[in-house]
Each structure stands twice: as C-alpha cells, then as structure tokens.
Write a structure and sequence with these properties.
By secondary structure, the chain is an alpha+beta fold. 33% of the residues lie in helices and 23% in strands. The chain has one domain. It is built from 4 helices and 5 strands; from the N terminus they run H-H-H-E-E-E-E-E-H. The chain has a 5-stranded antiparallel sheet with strand order 4-3-2-1-5, covered by helices on one side. Strand 3 and strand 4 (110-116) form a beta hairpin. The two termini are 22 Å apart.
C-alpha cells in the first residue's frame, strides 16, 4: 500500500463501487434523466456525504420539474416531522454532512430546514404556481447549471490536494 492509499474495509470498497450507480423503472414510460458527466465522472471518494447528497437531490428535483406543467412548481414534503411542505427556493450543503433547504411554507413564511445527510428523507410534490407569478419558478434547472459550473473547480482543487509540495 502506498502512502497516499488509505486502508478500507471490504464494506467500504463495495459501497464506493456501487454508490455512483442509478437504476429506475417507471410506470409512466417517462425517460430517466441522464446524469451530467461531471457528476458521474467525479470519484465518490472526492465528495463529502453532503456534496454527494446535494448533487443527487439536484438531479431528482430537475427530473421532477421536467414533468410539471406550466401551472405547477416543485415543493418538498419532509418525512418524520411536522415540517410540512416547503416551496423550494434554494438548496445547499455544508461539508461534511449537512444539507439545507430554503423556501416558503404553505402560509408563505420563509423557511429553512437544516438536515443531516443520515436523516434525509424528502418527497417531491407538484404545487400550483403562485397566483401572482407570471410563470412557474424552476429551481432544478438553476441548481443543475450551478452544479455543472462548480464541477471543474472542485476537480482542480482535488487534483491539487494530491500533489507533493516539493
């Protein structure tokens, strides 16, 4: 084993080999959204649990939004609590293990949910767009564009971290 390799259990090796995989079958004959190559190609080991969860949430939100009509917007419901439904206005993460959701609740109050990745359990829902909004807000497309812009920077930082100083 070289200096740069870390010892891993067989369970960790198996988990790291499987994590980037995605499989989905649908009854509505809908196409499964193809993952951007930046998400697939970046090694799981180079991502924190929060970043990995964030990237996958972005893909699921965008895929869900693609099936909405012009009068609907995406919202999230949260399992296991009284958080209710959140009209998504923002999504973020704080390394190594926190994912944050920003938006408005059913009464229009600003809301932020801060969740540990091990407790993450959400349901995506279609809600009518705001009556005063001319068009539905599509956060998934903005999140995906931001994710794709961030990938080269993250890869450059990971490449630089493994280089010797001398």
């Amino acid at each position: 084993m070289t200096r740069t390799e870390e010892a891993q259990t067989s369970a960790e090796i198996a988990e790291n080999a499987v994590l980037p995989c995605r499989h989905e079958v649908r009854t509505d004959d809908g196409d499964v959204t193809r993952q951007p190559s930046q998400v697939i190609d970046r090694p799981v080991q180079a991502k924190s649990p929060a970043a990995w969860a964030y990237e996958r949430l972005v893909l699921y939100i965008q895929s869900f939004e693609e099936g909405l009509d012009a009068a609907e917007e995406v919202a999230m419901g949260f399992a296991g609590g009284d958080a209710g439904v959140l009209r998504i206005e923002g999504l973020g993460y704080f390394d190594p293990d926190i994912v944050t959701f920003h938006g408005r609740d059913a009464q229009g109050h600003r809301t932020q949910l801060i969740q540990h990745v091990t407790q993450l359990s959400v349901i995506l829902r279609a809600l009518p767009k705001q009556p005063d909004a001319p068009a539905p807000r599509r956060i998934g497309f903005r999140l995906r564009a931001d994710l794709e812009r961030q990938q080269p920077e993250a890869e450059d930082a990971a490449d630089g971290a493994g280089k010797d100083a001398g």
